Model the fold of this input.
Amino acid sequence: MLEKPAPSAEQTATQWVDAFGRALTGGDEAALAKLFLPDSHWRNLFGISWQLATASGNESLCRELSRRASEVRASEFRVDTAALAPRRAVVAGREVIEAIICFDTSHGPGIGAIRLVYQAHAPPLAWTISTTLDFNRICDARSRRTTPVSHARDFAGRDWFEERQAEIAFEGREPDVLVVGGGHAGISAAVELKRIGLDALVIDKAARVGDNWRLRYHGLKLHNKTPVNHLRYLPFPPTFPDYIPKDRIANWLESYVDIMEINFWTGTTFEGAAYEEAAQRWTAHVQRADGAARTLRPKHIVIATSVSGTPNIPNIETLENFAGNILHSSQFGGGREWASRPVVVFGTGTSAHDICQELHAHGAGVTMVQRSPTMVVNVDPSAQLYDQSYLGEGPPIDIRDVLNSGIPLAVIKASHKLITNEVKKLDAALLQRLEKVGFRLEFGEDGTGWPLKFRTRGGGYYFNVGCSELIADRKIRLIQATDIRRFTADGLELRDGSTLRAELVVLATGYKGLDHVVASRFGEAVAKRVGPIWGFDDKTQELRNMWTRTPQPGLWFTGGAFSQCRIYSRYIALQIDAIEAGKLAK
Ligand SMILES: Cc1cc2nc3c(=O)[nH]c(=O)nc-3n(C[C@H](O)[C@H](O)[C@H](O)COP(=O)(O)OP(=O)(O)OC[C@H]3O[C@@H](n4cnc5c(N)ncnc54)[C@H](O)[C@@H]3O)c2cc1C
Done:
């Protein structure tokens, strides 16, 4: 007798989603539980209820999902084969079927991703499911309702350029949303706020859009490959290099702001703001480029001043003895003026390495001081292995973002551990040479590598673009902070009795996080109310206070990598839109 062919990935996914939809809409929690693995996860990105949270474990997942789904009348679950033909894949070493699903809720249409695991002699069970509101479909449906005017009949009226100038000026008009900081994070938030129909203004203290990159050290290129870094709506052209140089990304951001019609005030510093409960608005003080003060009254403020924006200057014992120049890495202008001069660089993160390399290239005598163990990973291919889902042939970026953001933290950890093991093998020769000269290495919590180091502490790693070889070859000297006895007027005295001359000390000692910005611009009371920002919350398994309502009404945070801002900015827009429509409490 002929054996029945195994069902295709599409048939399997469809059968599971049909059963899932029946169990969920029928309120049958027992049937629902039979569809999930014991170690399953549901990541809700505002798709079913206004929460960004991950529920883990069959029992709590099913209880939470049932309750939330009935609140928003989630229904019509189906496999979206047009978005992605369901396919076999390997995620964190596990063979899965992955598919895109869509559904309807009282908040709007939803989209998500499922990963099913085959069972011996039983239908496959879900390991992960994610649910998010479908921002694109929500905005498309709204724009279809407004009829565009083909041509202006009044030729004496304002043309596009004049309209834009008036829009940007905000004369006699208050923005719905003030976005503070116009790097990619602020710009990405503004583009989604505009698309959903909110009036947003971005301010940045820099003189020109893109100066956040333009003014960084010479020779800087982005570290992630170009397809990972796309902004929404306007992907980089295929002619762009694998790694974009700093001035090119700066110019791209400037063009993007123009093309996407983002209202942007350059040379404008945010001094601080206070919230008026009665008016449900902020009184925000800003200083314009010409020195004029202006008060704005937005309903919401989005802070996008970088998750690591304020220079961190640690207390380094006896540094006060040193009579030479001391610069934080953010103040380092370039290596040229330090040619043939001795320089000591504190730190072993990306900035420290890049500054050491630049100084060395200009003929300076460079010593790097290591304070704590650091992850070193070759920029190519090792560092890129964590971003495989964005590289090579595959579905459009929007769908890759749904797939990627559908992976819960526990699965990311498992996956990154495997990748880090692979990376260690690939980079073994370099890592051994580094250890030989005394470089202390580490590989992230539980060996999970650089991406989670970024999300927990905003750094602590170096993508090697050549500096590690210079250290291993002893062309750049490495010492440990514990080797230092004390600073002298012209350098360092080491514990072995030797001395080290220096004319410049660079403190590549990192940056303070957003908590510091809140305390300094909104006051201690607001900072206390909001609590820690960035880093994971144990209960929700999500980044704290990022892209979600915070305990301070009308205050929002965005930041992180290009890919994070591309994926999550839309949720700020969706929530503010719902608040302004009276559908969601501030
Ligand atoms: C060498 C290197 C390579 C990197 N490569 C990548 C990569 O490939 N992909 C990736 O995703 N990330 C990369 N990053 C990391 C990260 O994306 C960047 O550091 C990025 O600049 C963060 O963007 P942001 O918009 O959050 O903050 P920023 O770019 O720092 O922008 C914040 C803005 O806020 C403004 N601001 C601050 N305070 C105020 C105030 N009070 N009033 C008004 N304006 C204010 C600042 O002027 C600034 O323009 C890289 C970083 C480095 C150093």
